[in-house]
Automatic annotation (TrEMBL), chains A, B, C, D, E, F:
This is Mn-containing catalase. It comes from Cellulomonas biazotea. Its cofactor is Ca(2+); Mn(2+). Ca(2+) binds at D59. Residues 85-104 are annotated as: Disordered. InterPro entries: Ferritin-like (IPR012347), Ferritin-like_SF (IPR009078), Mn_catalase (IPR007760), Mn_catalase_dom (IPR039377). GO terms for molecular function: metal ion binding. Belongs to the manganese catalase family. Binds 1 Ca(2+) ion per subunit. Binds 2 manganese ions per subunit.
């Protein structure tokens, strides 16, 4: 069972809208090696896992899988921010009910020249479950052979490819909104690669100096270097509310990437940052309320509500 | 950000393996109107939501979306159990390292006659991200127009169609494992239908006597009736760890289905039941360990691990 | 612009339900060489047609394309009839509001063993836009190169392949409902093959004795022979309300199939037969009305309605 | 059974070629919420309809479905006109047999920079059965649950989403060819939304002030306003040749959109305008005739043809 | 550049037709981890290879890729043989022009109950480019990251998964035709797994005892054991006509699977066996010749032909 | 069984990188009418061929199919060359281990504006198995009806459409790298069209003056004219190592295109040109070796290897 907090797993820096960068990031969301895929793959591998003796391995998959849901949330929100307002249309007048297209205006004209016109035509300047070439995400991407060693090997390759593609995206744009998320995900992919490589070490593989695969030397990217300097590539959270996860039996010892760090699984979850709700885009008719509906919405927002009885608590005693 | 507990959201009854029922349930997992779709649709609608004044509506989407992840986990696990051991192969000898196919045996012969041979050939008797006709789940299913009223209307139709299909699946099998999950999801779909119908009521729609759509009179199904009798169709959990959700401003008052119940949003999450790990299936080479690897796995499971520092606690003070 | 009459283009014989035959016929509806494809292909070829001098060729495409819409209607209705009631559930009690699944019954159990479970789970015992292996129809099937000779050559091959597949379907079932439609479409495909072959003859090709392609000698099928005996393979209707079609400039002379008949384009449309509406299927919740809704439906059906002003008349003077 | 007249359902204004606008319009033709989808969805819903008492509802679906075929024809033709001649290649010399690419020319160079290179490479400057992002139309789009209320609800949402997307396309271009068709379809989608909303009113729903969904206030678009001023959003044609349609029992009374108009179902069909055939595009080898073939085509066009015997007449007595 | 010899790479044993086994083998032909995929993946990896210093690695990919084309030919032929004659129809009368369906016969009736009806309806009892669940092969399967280490790692995983699935297919059928090819491909997949594992060893990885992945102990399958006993899993052919391949620099030394064998790359190609042409199937209208066409075919077969000038010779001096 | 020589079937001229041209060529590689399709279609038609008397026809299919593999290799390599270095990034410093992205550089920025971002993000400036609109190649493209006449007719149409599209691509770019391959493939498609047209002539068809279809008069393209002048359109190689092919019984006599040439099947294979390996692209991390790995690669390249025993010889006696 899953629970949610209204926080993003990492902060997204503010910068100008940039629809081209938004589209490149779609590969990291809905691509074959993006976050929707890792999320679904590890979720299925956890559900279908066989062999009670392998619980630490199952828990490792389940913990990383849970993190990937938050990555979907993070990169999806980043894409939405990069698209939001990209038409540079006068979208925030005093009157909240604007007049898009009035008199024959074309506030969405720029959509015709963008990488994926669906960002404007279908998704109201929001993220889509597709890759950077517009292909919808497919269930056929999910790999779950049932054989533990093969699944670990595949996952190692999957995280490595995800990181490779994100390093290429980094080289495509210097938009700070895009890069803050890309850099974070590069380092987390590295952490997951370390996790699967370490799991294979417990089964007898010695990686020599071949890790990390690929050797993108991402420490040359300043935004990445900051995160590596605090060791984020060697940390794995449990994302487990009741301390039942045994992933820490695997994720410990020296990093298989031989960067001199120790693997560390002692944290439950990062603190994250509060999430916010995007502004209206009138030219997209989103959310598209007229005065009558707006009044009803407001009335609902003003209603009293009963207190919720918590089963799982917000903050344990320090 | 998402967290996990090692519990299933509802109990799965034990019964015989039944691969035909398992395949029918795939529609509820990976079909156009299944749980992967609702999960992804509400996740995207939450991420791309516009209009800070509409926070109760966003929180309603986010809460239901979080529940759907647990539904994916539940129905996926149910399918895996229905498939597990369906070859009726002598798979649990004293010696954990069995000899599938030795001497020319065909322990998987039954796979040739099943609805989806991939359950045995690809997924090692586990769940797949496909529908009951074998089509992989597609990102093109996700609907997120950005227009609030349209999204609510679509979601109402989506939950209604999901429930309609599950009622048909109910009529296809009396396997208790299958029915315990189907009945639970029928009632939860009804709760979500009520949630979206209620949200449209706050915008001025009066449904008359047309709800629920469709009128399947599922109380005629005994397993469903038990859940309706305790009012599960009129309850919505927040799944929110820090009590930030405002969904309860919408989900209150008389049920739009006019069954005489009050909508109730005062619980954070159901208690659920502990989850377990499936046994080995040697004929699938899953997880496929030989004595050497088994010893290494055991060594890892015996390792000490450091305590995890909780950020979100397991159990709040009563 | 298109208009409709509430008649089927050919009569469908009554016989027992037969879901396996229904599924085979799906290839003729939603397959790569089925009626949805010919309909869409000729519609696009008509819309995009270039060269005003080639009007007779455009009109030939347009007329056959219009016929194909009626073929979609015919084969779709045939499939629906073959599926209707196939669960042999007691579906027509005195009380129109039945109790499917009551007490744990499984009236749809047979769906688990059928070729395409979606016929019961998704389509309420109705036709689907998919082929006999369950693949959804795809726009990528449509061929329209813009080059007249190539398009004619492709269309000839398309009709020939459609006929080949329907002859194979004929050999798979002796259900009279299925065969009455299959036999009709075999002969109409032959007529269309003749049309495209004749169009290529006007451009200089001499087919020798190679037509028809393929030589299935379908006159050995009794239901087909009856239609050949009245020359249906050598007739092409205009389906044109204002006598503007010039297709008859092409479709005349001896048949290129060298069966000794004359091509004949002097009829506007066949007479067809009145169409009917299928009965309720309670176990599918289709159409799923309870007493309240039923009363409202009846009230609507009893309403007076204003007379419709015809622009195109029902029956010209003999 | 269907018949055709060689007229377009609405006039297409002349303007410059505009391949970017053409591509945006592809969403309205081959997109998930475009005309191919509405056409196919209503065709299947009519074929599979259950419940003889619901004939007025079936006839409503069938009439709108027939209109959608003409919409496919209209928007397809509009796209073809927007593409035609877009290379601005010297394509109409005295000699009808031009020399594309002679001496190494690149008359199609612009294709490399357009939204969908297939418009030039595959479709000879014609329309394609794909959406604005290039995805082929898929049979998986068609929704037909068999449950009447659900199908009506879905159709309402479908028309609303189609209109929303077309309003966004309107804001993307001011090309008059594109806008004349977009404006017409916005208003007809509104009429169909009214039809489905009215059908749900007959079943007891009271929409309050929530309609139309979405509230795009399209009367701010001048081309749309002209059509609203003559009430085109409140009219539904029967497209039925023999006055058998009972759709008028539903489509009457005040518009559910509460714009003060009366719904009106008393016309059979609009008058439309004569359709024409596009010119040759030599650089596409379309239709690609050399002098020999041209002479043969001419000879065919000059042939006498026999008179066609009408079954359904062109013009009823006033 | 590629050349062909009219020989199969391995002998196919004769046995009864078995359409269910044929369908299972489709996974090995057109599945995600089948021979079409390995063939295309290695072909693309060879074409796009970067780094002249890595020629031995490129040559290894190219040699294995060439072998995979012959595997496509082998498994495709095996599937065709398993399907051929499966209707047990009296298909070889004295008169070569039979009368399928005459008098209403249903010689293809069994097609309705088979795993993939397309084997009879579309493919005339031949192989299809689809997997065992009927999904068409997709270009999205091909992995070619451009990073050498990642590509090698992926290929290792790919061969391992292919072998895993083939071991499961082995357990599904004891048909000798199916097993002779399955056993051969299991051993060749093992050889390719050894090749990629060895390539990673040259880059510093030490696999410990983890290879082969997975540990299916396929020596328990008698047909496999025979091939392992002659060391076929440790042999790699160059398939190179001009001795330019340097793959032998990698494929040497002790097998990474630690079975005590030496890797051996000293053979150019296996001898294989002569291939044959399948008989007619009249009920499929395949090849569908009537007496006239048959006479023309015979006349062509009797024609003299000019001698072909060889560039690459059939047999080098011993 | 297939063998390989490390030579390209035709020379690729050097010119500047040109990613837009590269993308247009993708249609010729992975499009519905591209080389992957012809290769796979003829391979399947050869495997599934029925009728031993038709061996010359089978051999014709097999020989052309083998040539198509070399065409895939040729056009794939051409695309890779057109992409290679297109970022104009300083990629060849003295030090082979470059620093892409260091300090926040964006060496891959241009990828955001290209037709298919996957060329940079996924494929490391290499070819992809997709068409020019980014659709992955699909097994559903392959046509193999089993009926000989239909298959020949389809193949004729297929080659004709492939040539039509390549003539359009020719008109889109004057890049010499692109044109050298496009021109070669235009002429080879013409040769294959002649082959299938000739095969239909042997069955009695007289094409009159309708061939070639389409009449693109490609001799107006200078690069094409050079190849026509040496008669390359009337030559068909056997690609058969043991002189077993009987295709020459068909491919002889006057060309059906009536260009006055004689068909000639007396050559086994063209000489081709030596192939090379592409340089590193550091900004793609391809192949991505660091000094340690580079040293290991070099060590492997320096290893001795055993001589390969040839079964099929490199060069027969003159």
């Amino acid at each position: 069972m899953y629970l949610h907090v209204q926080r993003l797993i990492n902060e997204i820096e503010a910068d100008e809208p940039d629809p081209a960068a938004a589209n490149a990031l779609q590969e990291g969301l809905g691509g074959q090696f993006g976050e929707m895929r890792t999320m679904m793959q590890y979720l299925f591998q956890s559900i279908n896992f066989r062999g009670p003796k392998g619980k630490p391995y199952r828990d490792l998959l389940q913990g990383i899988g849970t993190e990937e849901i938050s990555h979907v949330e993070l990169i999806g929100t980043t894409i939405a921010r990069l698209l939001d307002g990209s038409p540079r249309y006068n979208g925030k007048p005093t009157d909240p009910l604007d007049t898009p297209g009035a008199g024959g205006d074309t506030p969405l004209r720029l959509a015709l020249d963008q990488s994926n016109i669906h960002h404007y035509l279908v998704a109201a300047q929001g993220a889509l479950p597709v890759d950077a070439a517009g292909n919808p995400w497919s269930g056929s991407y999910v790999y779950n052979s049932g054989n533990l060693v093969l699944d670990l090997l595949y996952n190692l390759m999957l995280e490595s490819t995800g990181r490779l593609q994100k390093c290429r995206i980094y080289e495509m744009t210097d938009n700070r909104t895009a890069r803050s998320t890309i850099a974070y995900l590069i380092v987390r992919d590295q952490a997951h690669e370390n996790a699967y490589a370490r799991a294979l070490e417990t089964l007898g593989v010695d990686w020599g100096k071949v890790l990390p695969i690929p050797k993108t030397n991402a420490e040359r990217f300043p935004e990445v270097k900051k995160l590596l300097d605090v060791g984020l590539q060697s940390k794995q959270y449990s994302f487990d509310l009741t301390a039942a996860s045994e992933a820490g039996r695997i994720f410990q010892g020296m990093s298989p990437s031989k960067d001199g760090t120790q693997l560390d699984a002692t944290e439950q979850a990062p603190a994250g940052v509060a999430s916010t709700i995007a502004e209206e885009r009138f030219e997209e008719f989103s959310p598209g309320l007229d005065p009558d509906l707006l009044a009803l919405i407001q009335a609902t927002a003003d209603l009293e509500m009963d207190a919720v009885q918590p089963l799982y608590g917000p903050l344990p005693a320090g």
